[in-house]
Amino acid sequence: MSDIQSSIRPIQQVLAVATAVSGGDLEAAILWYRNEPLALFDCWTAEPLVAEGRATDVLSLLEPFQAGFIR
Question: Residue 28 and residue 15: Cα distance in Å, rounded?
């Protein structure tokens, strides 16, 4: 796998889950990914967290939403 592919994969994973959580709205998922401050992560957005290799943390944050426990 190339470096580009390995750096894009976590972004794709987070955006796929965020899209599912937003009811299939990719645009809303991208806006969330880039702009929504996450209180659990000192108000960082998902974008820099994923860039730092913390996609798993972001995905863990999204799990309850994806499971339907939080709306």
Answer: 10
